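Budget justification, computational time. The allocation requested in the original proposal was used primarily to generate structure tokens for proteins on the priority list. As evidence of use, we reproduce two of the resulting records. The first is shown immediately below.
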Amino acid sequence: MRTSGTFDLVIRNVGIVRPSADQVITGDIGVRDGKISAIGLDLPVESTTRVLEGNGRLAFPGLVDAHMHTGIYAPLHEDALSESRAAAQGGVTTSLNYFRSGQYYMNEGGPYAQLFPKVLDASRGRFYVDYAYHLAPLDSAQIAEMGELVDRHGVTSFKIFMFYGGYGLHGASGTQRDFLMIGENENYDIAHFEFVMRGARAAMDRFPDRRDIVSVSLHCETAEIMNAYTRIVQGDTSLSGLKAYSAARPPHSEGLAVCIASYLAHETNCVNINLLHLSSRKAVEAALLMAKTFPHIDFRREVTIGHLILDDDSKAGALAKVNPPIRSREDVEFLWDTLLAGKIDWVCSDHACCRHETKVHDGHDHDIWLAKSGFGGTEYLLPALMTEGRRRGLSLNRIAALTSLNPARRFGLEAKGDLAVGFDADVVLVDPTHTHVITAGDSESQQGYTPFEGLTLEAAVTSTILRGELIFDHGTVIGSPRGRYLHRPYRG
């Protein structure tokens, strides 16, 4: 018979990295029924089912990767399986995935009342980590569904792709109604963005208990500027590769979109706004200016590990094509300065597995205009942030906040993001001294390449624990998929 002092699992002798603390403490973590039930020194192990020796490794809360795309370039049921393995490999225990109707993804239009149950069916039993979805309302009918999505499915976060109305996913402009699979009377434009925010505001008012977790996330780039600059850049033979793509989607397009989005948030009183994957100095400066201009709006600012590590001189070339683009080294350094100053809320991967045969065309491996946009990287999020962050004085506790607690709180995951009694026993063990070189062949992802190839990492995830069960240990994904769909607010 189990007594009050027994555990299902004890993780012994680890450096416990709590996001709200200012130092790392040594201790043990006791787990019972998938929850952290005790933290302390020398927890009793006599009646414990399993003891995991930490041997002085660091224990972080399981990562909440706030920005992923699962099922964009491959069928959802396939992508969920392979890419959640990559997530577990990187210490991610919660995957938050942006999803929409239209081409790519499920290649289906219409109401979410019909589409989203299909998404959930395709996801069930396929994720190795816990998961949830952000959804993008693309037409007026989907805007009208936002309240029901909050209530019935626990979807509390919604996305706007600001450039979709007049610019292609990969760089070519064209008619977007067919791409988005919306009707002839629908326009995906600034007015639509306003009405999405009004839909979110209505959901906040309808469900006051969920007001703080209903939010709108924006990909901030403007189609008009990008169309004009793409024509200019494609005619300029002095630019090529990543530098050309960045010039075709210039930073001031990103900054202008931030300003437009922020004013719409003010106009609609949509008080919870997430500015996604800020990639440039101009975008960040616009975001900080808007926060001062509209102090009643709760802005959150996101950057990706790709934009923190790579620059437009990267040898990866077209393999590093992503939206918004990889920028100059000067922009990268400004992102770091802003992060170290405490003005970035979370770091994510923006993982979108795009296999090599899909990413680039035969014989055109270096053609930036033909390459597809997006790449994976969830498996490198924590070790890459630790490697570069520690060199710059970023504390381990801040890293835990940036990768776990902050996104968990924003997106209504109350039982995730910290190492504390009552939280889900999501724990990632890290060897902070293990130096290794990234090679795509070591990844669980099905992508087959990585733009991070050859990067030396100075930390390694050794074990990932989801709700008290090992799902990754010393290079091996363990067991069958046991990830759960998280209906938000999620309290465990």
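The second record produced under the same allocation is shown here.
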Amino acid sequence: MTLTLYYAPISCSLVPYIALSEAGAAFEIQVVDFRHGAHMSPDYLRLNPKHKVPVLVVDGKPLTENVAIQLWIARQFPQAQLLPEDPWDSFRAISLLAWCASGIHPHLTPNVLPQRYCDLPGSEASVRRCAQSMLRENFQVAEDILRGREWFFDHFTLPDAYFFWCFRRGRQFNVDLAAFPSCQAHFDRVSARASTQRLFAFESETLRKFEKTP
């Protein structure tokens, strides 16, 4: 089986990168350079007409959407225990993945691309302010879940990786996160994992290469 992950630095494609690393999977990386519009090229649009990352290509067949990719990884590599063993908890974990994808992620993008959400001149600050208010509301939900816990379940699972990315982006957008110490502690624990350290190293190297090819 050959696996190729289409990845862009900083983006949510780091989530399947971490999941594949946690699973001990052998995979190749194809970096998608959004700066130069690689995601809009004819070749990439044939792969994913939604012009987004991540895409996981499995033996030549593309799979899109983060939740689907993560569930495929969990089922293909069950020994990694990326979902809880208990059936009910497994569905709860899928619910958390869906929440990250549809409940948190959409409030991150307006911070970097506010013009997609309102084309009224001078509205950028208002769009960001509203998005950050919704982010804090969602982070409070996570704070309540994580208080007194290391992970969302009794060991590291896929929701930990996805929420890690969500919280990381909030930090990068300078959202006021002082009210969420449990989320911050969770972020630090995920950051320390070998899979995440591998991601950080690859991301840094990719960004260095970008700097050399403006």
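A brief technical remark on that second record: The chain has two domains: 3-79+195-212, 83-193.
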